[in-house]
Design goal:
Helices cover 34% and strands 27% of the residues. By secondary structure, it is α+β, with helices and mostly antiparallel strands. The radius of gyration is 28 Å and the shape is globular.
C-alpha cells in the first residue's frame, strides 16, 4: 500500500493555527481554473487574529471533519482568548489534496458551521484557488503556533493498513495511529493486583499519580503557561531560547554546559560499568534504506528531512537504528549475549509540535543516553530488564531526584504479555514499592510489547518521561541482526531499549522544577552540589586579601573542587547576597582574622548555618557530598570581576 492510499484511511485534513498580531493578504492571480470568482481584489489587513492555514485531503467524511475541526477551534480560541479567525486555504500542507470543487464545498461548509457554532467570533476567509501575497506577525508565546492532523476513528482498519505498509511516510504511521489506538487504563498496586482506573481510589499522598493519569487520559500536550523552570534556567545563567534557530533548540551558557557535561559523563560511566560497549553512530540516514522505512513507521516521532546529493535523508530521532545497523554487521555468539551497546546521542532530533515546546521540558534537539541489550530469548530479556531497572533507579537517585518522592512510574504492555508474564510484572512491583500507572493494549501495534518510564510531574500537571526501557520483539528481525545459538543456527535476538536517565536536558528541567517546588513549600531551592559550576565562593573583605584567596583557591582546585573569587569593589553584604541568589552553597569570607589564624569563615546557604573550619575540613565536607561523581574544572574565569554578564 502506498502513502496516499494509507492516508485516505487516516488523515482527512491538516491545519496550522497561528496566533498573530496582524495578517495582511492580497489576491494576485488565479492559481487554478476552479478558483473562486467575484472576490474583492484588494489588500486586507486583520488585527489580533488566528490564521488557520488549511489543506483538505481526499476523504468523503464531511460531517466528521466539520465536527472535529469546529471542536478544535473552540478549544484553541478559548485557550488564547482570541475573537477573530481567518480561514486561509493552503494546499502546501499536503500532497494528497481533495479535488478543488470538493475542497471548496467543504471549506464553505466549515465556514458556515463555525458561524453557526461560534456566535461571538468574527470569521473571515481568504479567497480559494488564488495566489496571494501574505504578510503576518506571529505572537511569541508557546501556543502561538499549533498544528493539527484530523484522523478517522476507525482503529481496526487503520491498524490493518498500517501493518501492511512499508513505505517511507512524511509522518510516521505509528504517530498518526496513536490518536486512534484504544487504551485500557489501570493501576498496578504494590501487591501486583491490576485495578481499573475508574475503580481506584487515589490517596492523599498519591496526588502526582492522579495527575499522571489525568495527563495521559487527556492527551493534551500543549502548554498554556510558562513552567517555573524557564525563569530559573535564565536567572541562574544555565540556558535560554536561541531566536536564530528552529524552535526547541536551546543555547547553553557555561553553567549549563558544565551541568550537561557532568551529567553526560556520570551516566556514561554508570552504563559502561554495567557492561555496555560505548559506540558512536551517524546523525543522518537514508530515508529509503529498507530497515529505515519500516522502522520509521513503527516509531511515534516526527523527523527532520533533508536532501543531499539527490538522496533523501533524515536526522535521527533516536540512536536505535545506528546501533541496530552496527549489530547487524557483528559476528555474535550466544556466549556474547546479552550484548550491550551504548551511545550518548548528541543530538537526536524530533520535530515536535511548536505548542508543546517550552524550556527544557520538550525540545527538538536533545542529548539522550541510549543503551540497547541484545538478548538470547525472553527469559534472558526479563533477567536483564530487572538489572536495568535497578541501574535506572540508582542513576536517578544519584543525579539528585528521589524516585519515591519525585517520580511516578508508568508501564505499557499488551494484554497477551501481561497474562503470560504476571510473575515478572510482580517482580517489578516488588522493586518499585508504589502504585504504577498501566496502559494496556488488546493488540500489539508498536515494535515493543512492554515499556516503562519514570515520569516527573511538574507544577502545571505536565508529565515528562525520564528513565525508560522497552522489550522489542521486532527489530532483531527487521534489521537482520543474528547470533549463532548452541546448535550453530542463526537466531534473531530480542532487544531492550534503555535510557537510565532520559534526555540530559530533561533531567536539568526536573531538577529546576523540583527546586521551585521546594521554594513554594518555604524551603531553600538548590541544585545538587556536584552539578554546580561554583561549589565554593571566596569573598575577601578588601582587595589586599585577593592574593590570599588565590592561594586558597589553588588548594581546593588541586582537590577537584570548583572555586571562584568575588574580587569586585562592591559591599560585602551585596556580594554575599548575590552569591546566595546564584544558589552557591558554601560562601567563605576571608578577612585578616582568617588569614592570620589559617581558618575559613563559612556560610552554608542550604543549612542556614555559619561555622569555622580548616581548608582540609571543608574539603572533606564537600567530598562527602559529591562522593564519586565526575569532576570538571570551572569553565568561567575564577575572578568574578572579569566575567561577562549574562542578560537573563
Amino acid at each position: 500500500m502506498d502513502y496516499i492510499t494509507l492516508l485516505r484511511h487516516i488523515a482527512i485534513m491538516r491545519i496550522l493555527q497561528l496566533h498573530v498580531d496582524y495578517v495582511e493578504f492580497y489576491p494576485v492571480n488565479k492559481e487554478i481554473k476552479e478558483a473562486e470568482i467575484d472576490i474583492l481584489k484588494e489588500k486586507r489587513r486583520i488585527e489580533e487574529a488566528v490564521v488557520i492555514l488549511m489543506s483538505i485531503e481526499k476523504n468523503d467524511d464531511d460531517e466528521q471533519i466539520i465536527r472535529n475541526f469546529t471542536n478544535e477551534i473552540k478549544i484553541y480560541l478559548d485557550r488564547i482568548k482570541c475573537k477573530t479567525i481567518l480561514l486561509y486555504p493552503y494546499s502546501h500542507l499536503s500532497s494528497n489534496l481533495e479535488s478543488p470543487i470538493n475542497a471548496f464545498n467543504l471549506l464553505i461548509k466549515i465556514e458556515q458551521n463555525l458561524k453557526n457554532e461560534l456566535h461571538d467570533i468574527k470569521i473571515e476567509r481568504a479567497p480559494f484557488g488564488w495566489t496571494k501575497e501574505l504578510n503576518l506577525k506571529i505572537k511569541g508565546h508557546p501556543l502561538a503556533e499549533n498544528s493539527k492532523i484530523f484522523v478517522k476513528e476507525d482503529y481496526e482498519k487503520t491498524q490493518k493498513d498500517v501493518n501492511s505498509s512499508t513505505v517511507d511516510l512524511k509522518t510516521s504511521t505509528a504517530l498518526v495511529a496513536e490518536n486512534t489506538l484504544k487504551s485500557y487504563w489501570y493501576v498496578l498496586d504494590v501487591d501486583g493486583s491490576l485495578i481499573p482506573h475508574s475503580e481506584y481510589k487515589f490517596k492523599k499522598d498519591q496526588e502526582n499519580l492522579r495527575k499522571l493519569f489525568d495527563y495521559e487520559l487527556s492527551k493534551k500536550r500543549t502548554v498554556d503557561e510558562q513552567p517555573p523552570h524557564v525563569k530559573l534556567m535564565k536567572k541562574l545563567g544555565i540556558a535560554d531560547y536561541e531566536p536564530a534557530s528552529d524552535s526547541g533548540n536551546m543555547r547553553f551558557y557555561p553553567k549549563g554546559r558544565i551541568m550537561k557535561s557532568l551529567l553526560e559523563q556520570y551516566v556514561t560511566k554508570k552504563v559502561c560499568d554495567y557492561g555496555a560497549l560505548e559506540v558512536e553512530t551517524p546523525i543522518m540516514y537514508d530515508s529509503h534504506h529498507p530497515s529505515m522505512e519500516s522502522y520509521f513507521n513503527r516509531f511515534p516521532a516526527r523527523q527532520y528531512n533533508i536532501k543531499s546529493d539527490q538522496k533523501d535523508l533524515f536526522l535521527r530521532f533516536a540512536a536505535c537504528f545506528g546501533q541496530f545497523l552496527m549489530a547487524k554487521d557483528l559476528q555474535i555468539s550466544y556466549k556474547n549475549l546479552p550484548l550491550k551497546l551504548y551511545e550518548l546521542s548528541r543530538y537526536s532530533f524530533r520535530r515536535e509540535k511548536s505548542g508543546e515546546l517550552v524550556g527544557l521540558r520538550r525540545l527538538r534537539a536533545f542529548s539522550m543516553p541510549d543503551c540497547h541489550a541484545f538478548c538470547k530469548d525472553m527469559e534472558q530479556s526479563k533477567t536483564e530488564f530487572m538489572k536495568r531497572l535497578e541501574l535506572s533507579l540508582m542513576v536517578i537517585d544519584e543525579i539528585g531526584l528521589s524516585f519515591s518522592d519525585d517520580l511516578e512510574m508508568a508501564i505499557r504492555f499488551t494484554e497477551d504479555f501481561y497474562l503470560n508474564n504476571k510473575e515478572f510484572i510482580n517482580q517489578i512491583c516488588n522493586k518499585i514499592k508504589k502504585p504504577i500507572l498501566v496502559e494496556l493494549w488488546k493488540e500489539k501495534f508498536f515494535y515493543f510489547i512492554l515499556k516503562w518510564e519514570f515520569n516527573y510531574i511538574d507544577s502545571l500537571g505536565k508529565a515528562s518521561a525520564l528513565s525508560t526501557d522497552q522489550i522489542d520483539i521486532e527489530n532483531g528481525i527487521r534489521y537482520g541482526i543474528t547470533y549463532i545459538d548452541e546448535n550453530g543456527d542463526k537466531q534473531n535476538p530480542i532487544i531492550l531499549h534503555n535510557s537510565p536517565s532520559g534526555a540530559i536536558e530533561r533531567v536539568i528541567y526536573a531538577l529546576l522544577e523540583k527546586s521551585d517546588k521546594l521554594a513554594k513549600q518555604g524551603k531553600i531551592p538548590y541544585l545538587p552540589l556536584w552539578l554546580m559550576n561554583t561549589q565554593i565562593r571566596l569573598i575577601p573583605i578588601n582587595s589586599k586579601l585577593i592574593e590570599n584567596c588565590v592561594e586558597i583557591n589553588s588548594y581546593f582546585k588541586n582537590n577537584n573542587i570548583r572555586v571562584d573569587i568575588d574580587d569586585r569593589e562592591e559591599s560585602l553584604s551585596k556580594r554575599i547576597r548575590e552569591a546566595e541568589m546564584e544558589w552557591i552553597q558554601y560562601i567563605v569570607i576571608i578577612g585578616e582574622k582568617e588569614v592570620t589564624q589559617n581558618v575559613l569563615s563559612v556560610r552554608d546557604r542550604l543549612n542556614k548555618s555559619s561555622f569555622e573550619s580548616t581548608k582540609e575540613e571543608l574539603k572533606d565536607i564537600i567530598h562527602s557530598q559529591i562522593k564519586n561523581k565526575p569532576y570538571l574544572s570551572i569553565n568561567l574565569p575564577e575572578l568574578i570581576s572579569v566575567r561577562p554578564k549574562i542578560m537573563a
